[in-house]
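Note to self: keep these together.
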Amino acid sequence: MKNAVVLLSGGLDSATCLAMAREAGYQCHALAFDYGQRHHTELHAAERVASSLGAASYRVIRLDLGTIGGSALTDSSLAVPEEESDGIPITYVPARNTVFLSLALGLAEVLDAGAIYIGINAVDYSGYPDCRPPFIDAFRALAAVATKAGVEGRAPLIETPLLDLSKGEIIRAGTSLGVDYSLTVSCYQADEQGRACGRCDSCRLRRAGFAAASVADPTRYVSGE
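Structure:
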């Protein structure tokens, strides 16, 4: 059984991605990041999801992207928007996926992993530049030259199985693979109990996804709805 590194945030998309990697026959090593995010409770969700879906290992790498700032997810002085807006929103975290994938690439080399799975999505997403196909294409090229495995022709595949799926399609796929979405946390400002605000961009996309999939929404909201 070949190894795969799966980036696991504790949210809906990454949980589905882990289930897909497992279904593809990989022994999955879940990798989460404590990067100074305000919604720290997502790490508890990531651990629950890793256990539920039988990950071979679960690691948390700690780094502080809040030192850079520039995002409402790492800077408490910036408000998380609760209305739709044009352009790239303030919830974009500069260089986040670049950093995460780079560290995943290092772990993949240590584990001799054949793939790295990341649950980015270019359909129902918030406009982040590091969730688009050109970013992934560029990182695949980087992976081929940045490591010993890469220059020896063994660079891990960068797998993005959710890239072209709608949120509803993602939920239907995950449900068919046994994902328990009640374990996940997607909200950008979830409280310490993991309850969602129901108003931020991530909550709106998640709620609409369950409706589109005709699947009951198991999300716990602060308002109790």
